[in-house]
Design a protein that fits this description.
The chain starts with 20 loop residues before the first strand and ends with a strand. It has 2 domains: 134 residues, Leucine Aminopeptidase, subunit E, domain 1 (3-Layer(aba) Sandwich); 166 residues, no CATH class. The strands form 3 sheets. Strands 2-3-1-4-5 form a 5-stranded mixed beta sheet, sandwiched between helices. Strands 6-7-8-9 form a 4-stranded antiparallel beta sheet. A 4-stranded antiparallel beta sheet has the order 10-11-12-13. The radius of gyration is 27 Å and the shape is elongated. With 323 residues, it is of the alpha+beta class. Helices cover 30% and strands 23% of the residues. Strand 8 and strand 9 form a beta hairpin.
Length: 323
Amino acid sequence: MLEDWSGRITPEFVSSLEDNEIFVFGCRNSGRHWDGASAFALKHFDAVFGQCEGRQGRSYAIPTIGGTIGLKEIRQSVMQFTQYAAEHPELHFLVTPIGCGGGGWKTCEIAPLFRNASRLQNVSLPKDFWAELRRPWFWSLYRKTFDLSAYAVSAIKCIYGAMLHRWMKLLPSRILYRVLVRCASWNEELDLSEGFAWTKRFMCFYPKSTWSRYLLNHKTRRAYMVVDDNRKITIVRPKDIDWDSVSALPDKVRELIRKRTAKYDFSIYDYNGGVAKVVWQVSPDGSWYYQDKLGNGPTTDEKDIRLYGYIDTKCRFVEKLHT
């Protein structure tokens, strides 16, 4: 019963510690204690900036976010913590709801990892963790079945979205225009003058739809898919690139050009006399994309590299892409 654990429930807010108490908090795998419980531990409980795991002063860190951190890695860290707590019965560990704030994990995902730790009399857990641990064994099976069903529905929706985009890629320009106009409420449209518009079609069940871009010609009632749902620039062909001008670029950048990948930005600017300027940002400026790898990467030293060209009213290049 929960009442039996009343003496081992971590307070919702720990403002101070007894001499034998240790503050257990979740942090980034980089050890940068910038916010949440990790910042509080850094300020009040002797946490060490740059240390992502283990005992540090009057606190103990468990990495829950950043890089390749997943439940498997968190489980291993919790096992190490449990062993440490078992070896130090003279200390009392106040475990905060690690990973359930900025880490983005659910209580039902993190709490079961502390089942062995909950058997130690010198470990206190949050009230929500205790409530999760007291659930009957079949509750976990039910939740896993529910999550699996939700995942299957999500996968089916993504497959449907991918098939829909493949179908749209094959449509004649006049029919594609009708499809996009009928779904105008889902679109974000930018006027390019002379009857042209730069738009995207967003489908909430298919996240990759945000990458697609279309050029609309309202005068002729035609539409052209410019960037597809895999970030490939469909209107650019090898013959549309001035390969001599890009020959001196880094290999990685030339590979993106060869694959015609709109990894960062591909834009069409206002039409003037039936011709529009195209700007393709192939490589980022390091000062802009300082955390380019899933938000946790090192500062990049890449240059800001862009290609420029011009297209006509049917998305055909009248001037090749060049640096």
